[in-house]
Each structure stands twice: as structure tokens, then as C-alpha cells.
Design a protein that fits this description.
By secondary structure, this protein is of the alpha+beta class. The chain has a domain of 127 residues. It is built from six helices and three strands, in the order H-H-H-E-E-E-H-H-H. Strands 1-3-2 form a three-stranded mixed β-sheet. 26% of the residues are buried.
Length: 187
């Protein structure tokens, strides 16, 4: 199983098996990185420009071959147990669902998975930023035990209770109160 720089597990053997579509891929199959950040990697951008800015990875989803691949989460639902995030506006309480990094390659790409002598595995151009959303409870289980991202658990009872408290608070915040009702007796 892949590990963080501190040695704790990240919950997967191959981050690319869990990763989604590249964040830089546009709906029409072009590379947004080459379109908007050409100055960051002029050689890469020139190659994409010569090919009409088409994503060079193609439909086989071998994302590890792209030096600018990035797959980050929207953070709305736990990938492991399905717990949905409930955020209250203007509230700085800790989120129920957090970003969990799956890829911890070094700056020169030597710790990134894949490649090697296996011709069936594409060479890894990483390190790549690959994240998924995990609730706080699953996040802890993954890092402190052998829990895996692809397990199919039910949400932790404590997580369900926290979500329901937030939903109740959200519903009470959305209830209509006149200003005189809300501020009655306050000066």
C-alpha cells in the first residue's frame, strides 16, 4: 500500500486506479494547462499547441504519463462511506469531509508508482497531485489502520450524529423569522 512521507498508509496500492479525470482536461478534450499556463512549461505547451491543444494521454486514461496531470476532489461526499458534507455559511467549524492525498511522490518523481520494467504500465511522469474526499472518521481510519479507500463501510455513528446536528442547525438557520422576532429584547 502507498504511504505518506511520514509512513502512514494512504489507503490504496495505486493512486491512479482511484484518481479521476485530469482537472486540466476541458469538455472538448483539450489541455487547459497548455492553454492557460504555457509559460510554466513552454516545451509542453508547444507540443500541445502543435496538436491543437489535444490532451496527449487520450482515451486510455493512462494519466501517469502526463507531467501536469492533477486530479483533485470537490469535497462534497466521502469516497469511502458516502457521508455527505454539510457546511454552514459563516461558520468556521471543521468540515465533515476533508481532502485526502493519495500521491506523495518526491519532487524528482522517484517515489511515484508505476513505470519500471513492466511494459504494460505506462512510465510515471509524476509526482502528481491526486486527492479524494474522505470524512474525518474514514480519514483517521485510513491513516491509523489498514482501512482502504475501496472498502464499503457504513458511515461512522459519530459522523452521522455530527451531520444530523449540522442539518438541524442548517434548517433552523433557513427558517423565516422577522427582525423583531430575531432581535426581540436585544439592544
Amino acid at each position: 500500500m502507498e504511504r505518506t512521507p511520514d509512513g502512514t498508509p494512504v489507503g490504496v496500492d495505486d493512486p491512479y486506479a482511484v484518481a479521476g479525470v485530469c482537472d486540466h482536461l476541458t469538455d472538448d478534450g483539450r489541455c487547459r494547462f497548455a492553454l492557460t499556463r504555457a509559460g510554466d512549461d513552454p516545451e509542453f505547451a508547444a507540443a500541445r499547441r502543435a496538436d491543437g491543444y489535444a490532451c496527449h494521454v487520450g482515451p486510455d486514461d493512462a494519466w501517469r504519463r502526463c507531467p501536469h496531470y492533477r486530479s483533485t476532489t470537490d469535497g462534497r461526499e466521502c469516497r469511502r462511506c458516502g457521508l455527505e458534507e454539510v457546511r454552514i455559511a459563516h461558520d468556521d467549524t471543521r468540515p465533515l469531509v476533508e481532502e485526502h492525498h493519495l500521491s506523495y511522490g518526491s519532487a524528482d518523481g522517484t517515489e511515484s508508482p508505476g513505470g519500471g520494467d513492466d511494459p504494460d504500465v505506462a512510465a510515471d511522469a509524476g509526482p502528481h497531485e491526486i486527492t479524494v474526499a474522505l470524512c474525518r472518521w474514514c480519514h483517521t481510519k485510513v491513516h491509523k489502520s489498514f482501512a482502504r479507500i475501496d472498502d464499503d463501510p457504513s458511515p461512522d455513528p459519530e459522523a452521522m450524529a455530527a451531520r444530523e446536528r449540522r442539518r438541524s442547525r442548517e434548517q433552523s438557520e433557513s427558517a423565516f423569522e422577522t427582525a423583531s422576532e430575531r432581535y426581540d429584547g436585544r439592544e
